From TrEMBL, chains A, B:
EC number(s) on file: 1.2.1.41
Pathway: Amino-acid biosynthesis; L-proline biosynthesis; L-glutamate 5-semialdehyde from L-glutamate: step 2/2
Gene this protein is translated from: proA
The Aldehyde dehydrogenase domain, residue ranges: 19-289, 305-380
Official protein name in the record: Gamma-glutamyl phosphate reductase
Organism: Allochromatium warmingii
CDD domains: ALDH_F18-19_ProA-GPR
Length: 424, 424
């Protein structure tokens, strides 16, 4: 499937990196109009090339089936007509988002007479390493382009033909808008050495965003010689406080677990304050039973819920991504926060309470990328937060934290306006 | 000089890291009042222990002299009475700065009914690795404390006794304010293995800030397994445009080069637009001559300035940190920006012009941490920018860029306030 003309991977990647760097300079100064023009041209091109996209995807699907890929992987790989629609619509929506680049904030006069502010600027070249979903190619390219960055994309080998077909549409769109074709490059080889090269080219790539399973992300974090915006575990908690409104608690605990099972912001552990355990747990257990959720509990939980099985120590550290929930009865807010600090993954944690002081303490003291009061953890999402779009969710603290939108793909520089001032 | 009881460096550093992590949780939720109380208590303690500080410093100076350290190094090492004054005053000033921690911004309602904002939070544990100046111990500890971080400090071996004496004052101040003594720890060994351990403890240390020469910073960047806020070269440019006010240009070019020679924001290369070269260069050359600045120029410069020697290619890439200036006559704004992109270090670059469009292009297109119009590069400084203080200047783009104050020592998390909302 690889482009057979690429035999010298280091030389190929070096050249690709040089071209990305050169293109990034042009994209950094591209006007908002030119970037939006390119996005709409990319969308039009994807629309026009539907047949070619589907044919390329069929080729990937046939190769995947022949290789014995499992059904779930083949499903993720498939570009159905509605997925192509969604991909095109996503690119169009990015065109409607405000352009973050060049915005100047806090432009204040200083006693010396200079005026100092901060201008938002692109990061430069963003490398995205992802797995089987080919729609990431268009989504990620659109966000990087709008934020003025050049992009190097390296998708999964099983989606090679689909990604190349999408890349051709993107590059045609860039050219139509007078922007450099090299602004978005899709690595044209499935050789894994290309990934090793990508994460170790600080002169060419400024940040790597891996999107995929934990093993991919861990490997990239280990090998990377450039910053990585990464998402590791999502072990999210809901804590039902003694002062909770139990109807809200019920609605949130059901939604946080069962609205979707496989997402990173799904609740994996429910913590319940001892005074309300008997009032809420049997009611919740009935609803979870109806939805087929397996319950694993601490001894107090098991005493209140007949069908709960005893939780092991490993349960408190597990991201199930499945209809399984661990439940622990705790002795108040302190114990709940201690459990979250010890077992959580600093992703998303919520308290349900009507108590002002406890809500305020939870918000301040729980060190997670999203901290919520009386809301479902499922809201931790770039669209729900109003970021317009999301390139991923960061579980790091450095640079970007939580859902990462256009702003997370930028940095700021200081701008100084003077009238001939010198330093005394 | 090392504490002789420390024989097992990995075990010592692991323990120190554990204690830093535990202390960081307490400092993250410490009130503004408690942190300010600690800062004032540290200042009082430093005041009270002047004699002990001076004695410890004398011990370092004697050992340094015996080891044959050069005069410049011994000077940097010395804690004179006025330097102790400045150190104490610096700690007191940090107490007067606004507390960034817990501030919530952009708390907006979303269509779902949830209200989403961002709360500023400490990074966690900050590791500082620095060289001979012992005052860094108090400066860095104060900034990290105010921003709610625990700190692990590793100073130069030649300042060991001085740093330990300062550390005792800091820890006494923390205890006086009811904050954990382990909130600021100074590594009590000069074994270089401690540095290797510090930069590779992601479980204990969240970010490393090296302060020192280029070789220290390069070594740490290479070895680090945690993010590094680093400062590499400061190859700063002033570009005098054809549309410059030549009096402003003169003042800025003299100040940017000669106000101080050894600082990172000192101009190293002067670029002059060809149409004004004959009008400004001889006048500047006379002033530089009076100040003893050696001039190295391109052929056009040498034709205009008799005493200029020809610049070599290496000059354009040199950070002299000395009374040496390279000068190049360029053909307009594009050529100037091209020179800066190619030879600059993305630190601080200035244009002198009265032309609106050229000023605006330079601000947008020059990709440096500080970009200036009609002001001296020497203003690139946390105090001059109004950050209140500065832990360093970052030449990275990721997380923090340019002068880094309290805000650069923090991150943000999302906070979500709801009333029982669930995701549909």
């Amino acid at each position: 499937m690889t482009d057979a003309t690429i035999t010298d991977i280091p030389a190929y990647m070096t050249d690709l990196g040089h071209r990305a760097r050169a293109a990034s300079r042009q994209l950094a100064r591209a006007s908002t109009a030119a970037k939006n023009h390119a996005l709409l041209a990319i969308a039009a091109q994807l629309e026009q090339e539907r047949a070619a996209l589907t044919a390329a995807n069929q080729q990937d699907l046939a190769a995947g089936a022949a290789k014995g890929l499992d059904a779930a992987l083949l499903d993720r790989l498939e570009l159905t007509a509605s997925r192509i629609d969604a991909m095109i619509e996503g690119v169009r929506q990015v065109a409607t988002l405000p352009d973050p680049v060049g915005a100047i904030t806090d432009l204040n006069y200083r006693p010396s007479g200079i005026q100092v502010g901060r201008m938002r600027v692109p990061l430069g070249v963003v490398g995205i390493i992802y797995e089987s979903r080919p729609n990431v190619t268009a989504d990620a390219a659109a966000l990087c382009l709008k934020s003025g960055n050049a992009t190097v994309l390296r998708g999964g080998s099983e989606a090679f033909a689909s990604n190349q077909a999408i890349a051709r549409c993107i590059q045609a769109g860039l050219v139509a808008a007078g922007l450099p074709e090299d602004g978005v490059q899709v690595v044209a080889t499935t050789d894994r050495a290309a990934v090793g090269a990508m994460v170790a080219m600080p002169e060419a790539i400024d940040v790597i965003i891996p999107r995929g399973g934990k093993s991919l992300i861990e490997r990239i974090s280990r090998e990377a010689r450039v910053p990585v915006i990464k998402h590791l575990d999502g072990i999210c908690h809901v804590y039902i406080d003694a002062h909770a409104d139990l109807d809200k608690a019920y609605a949130i605990a059901i939604n946080a677990k069962t609205q979707r099972y496989g997402t990173c912001n799904t609740m994996e552990t429910l913590l319940v304050d001892a005074p309300v355990a008997a009032a809420i747990l049997p009611r919740l257990a009935a609803a979870y039973r109806d939805k087929g959720v397996e319950l694993r509990g601490c001894p107090q939980t098991c005493a209140l819920i007949a069908e709960a099985v005893p939780a092991t120590d490993a349960d408190w550290d597990s991201e199930y991504l499945a209809p399984i929930l661990s439940i622990r009865v705790v002795a108040g807010l302190e114990a709940a926060m201690e459990h979250i600090a010890r077992h959580g993954s600093a992703h998303t944690d919520a308290i349900v309470t009507e108590d002002y002081a406890r809500a305020r303490r939870f918000l301040r003291e729980v060190d997670s990328s999203s901290v919520m009061v009386n809301a479902s953890t499922r809201f931790a999402d770039g669209f729900e937060y109003g970021l317009g779009a999301e390139i991923g969710i960061s579980t790091d603290k450095f640079h970007a934290r939580g859902p990462v939108g256009l702003e997370g793909l930028t940095s700021v520089k200081f701008v100084v306006l003077g009238d001939g001032e010198v330093r005394g």
